[in-house]
Specification:
It contains 10 helices and 8 strands.
């Protein structure tokens, strides 16, 4: 069983009821809420407003699959500041009934090309230990709330191998977000990413993100119109027996020229039906 979801990153300035209608029309049962000012999941929302947001989403027959935060657990920021931000995000997610928060590595890197593996400014082990230390400090609290912190293949740590080095140092409940784009664009094969992240992918502690683009241009295009290995990715997930959330991350907030989210949802539904023809619920 998989849960199809879509991020509100793909619908900037679009009223939430419209987004929920689009999800219902394409059979998407989940929504990932981007945690940012001006979004439906605005960090300034009061507890009462969070409860109202949750009720509106659930009334539409949709569930919150994750809160997509911008916490960077490997950043050079002071430990206490990062940990406080993690706790605030966990509390926010708990109020919305979200089972997961998305977090980034976010260590400093030297400037490089889009397809080259990033070069860390600091020693790799020092960076990984810092991220793991911060995560270890909050896993107990996260578990008490029923919210899973999940580290994404992103920025300074784009590959499954990069992420696994951190997660292996974390005790307690921790998860992963596998963004299809980033491991592949930096040279890690789909099979290698699966192998590195398998302990979390097969334990119900994962979310995978789908998207498409015609690299080296990163502007989103409907699924199947770019050159990301989406068909191989779908086959791998099916063959490995992946069961969990599959999230369409349509980056219209960063690329205003991209099509509307409802167009992307239709292409994602076609992709889902091709790989899970018996239904995805």
């Amino acid at each position: 069983m998989i849960t199809p979801s879509a991020s509100t990153l793909g619908a900037p300035e679009t009223p939430l009821p419209v987004v929920l209608d689009w999800l219902q029309a394409t059979g998407f049962s989940g929504i990932e809420l981007r945690l940012a000012p001006g979004e439906p999941a605005d960090p300034s929302l009061s507890p009462a407003a969070r409860q109202a947001l949750r009720q509106d989403i659930e009334a539409a027959g949709v569930k919150v699959t994750a809160v997509a935060s911008y916490v960077r657990v490997a950043a050079t920021t002071d430990d206490d500041a990062v940990i406080a931000e993690l706790i605030q995000t966990l509390d926010f997610a708990s109020d919305l009934g979200a089972p997961m928060i998305r977090i980034f590595p976010g260590a400093e890197t030297a400037q490089g090309s889009f397809t080259a593996p990033p070069v860390l400014i600091e020693p790799r082990d020092e960076v990984d230990q810092r991220a793991a230390r911060r995560l270890n400090s909050i896993t107990g609290y996260a578990q008490s709330l029923g919210v899973l912190p999940a580290l994404e293949t992103h920025d300074s740590h784009p590959t499954g191998t990069d992420i696994s080095r951190i997660l292996e140092k974390v005790e307690g409940n921790i998860g992963v977000v596998w963004d299809l784009l980033h491991p592949w664009r930096t040279g890690e094969s789909l099979e290698a990413t699966w192998t590195a992240l398998e302990p979390w992918l097969t334990a119900g502690r994962a979310n995978v993100q789908i998207k498409d683009a015609m690299l080296p241009v990163s502007t989103p295009v409907p699924l199947g119109e770019g050159n990301l290995p989406l068909e191989d990715f779908g086959r791998l997930l099916v063959n490995k027996g992946y069961r969990g959330t599959i999230t369409l991350e349509w980056e219209k907030a960063w690329h205003p020229e991209a099509a509307r989210l409802d167009v992307a949802l239709k292409s994602a539904r076609t992709w889902l039906d091709r790989h899970w023809p018996g239904g995805d619920r």
